[in-house]
Design brief:
Mean pLDDT: 84
Largest sheet: 8 strands, mixed
CATH superfamily of the largest domain: Metallo-dependent phosphatases
Distance between the termini: 27 Å
Order of helices and strands: HEEHEHHEEEEHHHHEHHEEEEEH
Structural class: alpha/beta
CATH architecture of the largest domain: 4-Layer Sandwich
Shape: globular
Strand order of the largest sheet: 5-4-3-2-10-11-13-12
CATH topology of the largest domain: Purple Acid Phosphatase, chain A, domain 2
Number of strands: 13
Helix content: 25-40%
Strand content: 15-25%
Number of domains: 2
Length: about 350
């Protein structure tokens, strides 16, 4: 019997071959968001709490700075709400989408929750595809929602997938189990990681709702941050050392909390069984996070993992050095670079380590 992951690799290969291509260079600007889960604007709408933050980030930063916009699946929560209701209640958001489509570019992938758009007969104005491929200096950045790396979807045809989603909607069930299941998240990410290594490319997914940068989880990023701050402490003026020391203690506490969470989830492996993580898998996270929004930026020949937050909800990053959040033009919203690296360096590491 053939291992299921081999079937998934074959499916992802077909997805890659059929992906729509866009050429990019060091002057290109893209921002990638995933998992908006837009609903009816009511109390059951998961998008609503961060909707003002999301709109402000799009309008006052990304549109202003001429970014192209990629929405990587599960934009509309069609398993719980009709498209007509969503379009009606979030007209202001769709107007922003229109602005990107006119000024720069706007593209969308199909997620598991908005897969029905593929079969919808009514007009839907935005370019959509199962996957996209950004071609950078003879290297590929493969972008797809991520549900395709799940065993649940690997043998289903498009029609079968539609029937599955339609049945889920009419029965009142939903598909939040992946974002709340650590085991399912890890398996999906591992398959996406293995496929990216096989093809020697960067892969960007969403679906699991947790941000990844260079195949590393938060716990690994915290270790690097502490190491960086220790180095900064040695070369800083005495007047800054006290602040840096406080930041180190803060991130130590965050690291300990993350360790405790991982122990509760019985998860000991953080890099998909490689002794040295190959930096090929990225995840833009989600727009419906409890402490804000995460996304990925590609600009100036670099990849950046970004956290947007409202200081009235999450103030901790304003109290310590290390990340340097920047306020967004007379609002109480902040943009914070969690991690960044040059695309050339990332691709070089992939080629040398795979």
């Amino acid at each position: 019997m053939v291992a299921p992951d081999i079937h998934i690799n074959t499916y992802l290969d077909k997805l890659l071959e059929g992906a729509k291509e866009h050429q990019i260079n060091n002057h290109s600007k893209w921002v990638i968001f995933s998992d908006l889960h837009m609903g009816d604007g009511g109390t059951a709408d998961d998008f609503k709490p961060n909707s003002d933050l999301f709109q402000s980030a799009l309008r006052d930063y990304y549109l202003k700075h001429n970014f192209s916009l990629m929405l990587n699946g599960d934009v509309e929560g069609l398993e719980r709400f009709s498209l007509e209701v969503i379009l009606k209640n979030w007209k202001v958001v769709y107007k922003l989408f229109d602005s990107f489509a006119k000024k720069t570019q706007l593209v969308k992938t199909y997620g598991n929750q908005d897969l029905r758009l593929k079969f919808k007969q009514q007009t839907y104005y935005y370019e959509m595809s199962e996957a996209y491929k950004l071609c950078y200096d003879q290297n590929n950045i493969f972008i797809y929602h991520g549900h395709q790396a799940s065993k649940k979807y690997q043998f289903q045809s498009d029609l079968g997938s539609f029937k599955l989603k339609y049945s889920a909607q009419t029965s009142g069930s939903n598909n939040y189990s992946v974002s709340h299941s650590n085991k399912k998240q890890y398996k999906i990410e591992k398959r996406a990681y293995q496929h990216a290594i096989k093809r020697g490319q960067i892969s960007i997914i969403g679906h699991t709702h947790r941000p990844l940068f260079k195949s590393l989880y938060k716990i690994d990023r915290l270790r690097f941050k502490i190491d960086q701050l220790c180095r900064d402490y040695l070369i800083s003026a005495p007047s800054n050392q006290e602040s840096i020391a406080h930041s180190i203690k803060f991130y130590q506490t965050e690291l300990e909390k993350s360790h405790q969470i991982q122990k509760l989830k019985n998860r000991n492996s953080f890099n998909y069984h490689h002794n040295l993580a190959i930096p090929c898998l990225f995840n833009s996270g989600t727009v419906i996070g409890k402490r804000g929004i995460t996304c990925l930026e590609i600009s100036d020949g670099k990849m950046r993992l970004i956290h947007w937050f409202d200081k009235n909800i999450s103030k901790k990053y304003l109290q310590y050095t290390g990340y340097d959040p920047i306020p967004l033009c007379k609002t109480e919203f902040y943009r914070m670079v969690i991690n960044e690296d040059a695309l050339n360096y990332i691709f070089a590491r992939i080629k040398l380590l795979r």
